[in-house]
Design a protein that fits this description.
Layout: E1 2-6, H1 10-23, E2 28-33, H2 36-45, E3 51-55, E4 57-58, E5 61-62, H3 66-69, E6 76-80, H4 86-91, E7 94-99, H5 104-135, E8 146-151, E9 154-159, E10 163-168, E11 172-176, E12 181-183, H6 188-194, E13 200-204, E14 207-210, E15 214-219, E16 225-229, E17 237-239, H7 241-251
Parallel strand pairs: 1-2, 1-3, 3-6, 6-7
Antiparallel strand pairs: 4-5, 8-9, 10-11, 10-14, 11-12, 13-14, 15-16, 16-17
Length: about 250
């Protein structure tokens, strides 16, 4: 737990610091500030602490001035020798109002109160998160991971990651990075739906390519692209002007 102490008396600060360590040695004192001006500077440069101990009378005025200049979204335990400010304190983010001089037992009560309050907030947030997760189930798509192919009366399972490209001649073929070629019983339209789109791209009517098979891409004419693959594909691979922007985004060229 990170604690900021705003207190203009050194003896009072040291006493509070010592008592906090008695309550919990793991408490971290994020800072000690003695004035409104220094407090504003501190909050401008640092993240909000988990808990703020705030004296009311500071060296340059009443600490309530802070609320006029800073949006203090932090639980506060006020520490003061004056009881007349209790109502104002509880209108702020007050967890408790400690009248000086206070003893260890009274401080412990305040810290226990803060912990109980904090636990209630955490439980509420956890409940809301569970509701959100329950109401917003993430839909996942199962893309095809392998293809069963046939060669000389033998069946082989080809991992999709090993496929360099699919192309259509009279039939549809897949070509592996090892330059093996097999017939697949899918149309290119079907393949486009079942392949991982971040990995495979429909370059044109006859070809779907694996991003790892792209050897080079050159501007061809009128924003068309000329693509070369590895392993090499017969004939020119032209990506149309209409698809070139999408293709470059896929490659993250833009």
């Amino acid at each position: 737990m990170k604690v900021l102490i705003i207190e203009d008396e050194k003896a009072a600060f040291e006493n509070l610091e010592s008592m906090l360590k008695v309550y919990d040695p793991e408490i971290e004192i994020s800072g000690w500030v003695t004035s409104i001006k220094d407090a504003i500077n501190w909050f401008e440069k640092n993240n909000m602490p988990d808990l703020l101990f705030l004296d009311i009378y500071l060296s340059d005025g009443l600490s309530f001035e802070l609320f006029k200049q800073i949006d203090l979204k932090v639980p506060i335990i006020f520490t003061t020798a004056y009881h007349q400010y209790a109502i104002q304190a509880f209108e702020a983010n007050s967890v408790d109002y400690l009248l000086k001089p206070f003893k260890q037992g009274r401080l412990n009560q305040s810290l226990d109160k803060f912990k109980a309050f904090h636990a209630t907030i955490d439980d509420h947030i956890l409940h809301k998160l569970k509701q959100l997760i329950g109401n917003n189930t993430v839909e996942t798509t199962n893309y095809k991971e392998r293809f069963l192919v046939k060669s000389r009366n033998k069946l082989f399972a080809i991992d999709t990651n090993d496929v360099a490209y699919f192309h259509r001649d009279e039939l549809v073929f897949l070509t592996t990075f090892d330059k093996n070629k097999f017939i697949v019983e899918y149309s290119l339209d079907e393949l486009e739906r079942i392949l991982q789109p971040r990995q495979f791209f429909r370059a044109n009517r006859k070809l779907i390519v694996n991003i790892k098979a792209i050897r080079s891409t050159d501007v061809y004419s009128k924003s068309k692209l000329l693509v070369k693959l590895n392993p090499e594909f017969y004939g020119d691979i032209i990506v149309s002007q209409e698809k070139s922007s999408q293709f470059k985004r896929w490659l993250d060229f833009d």
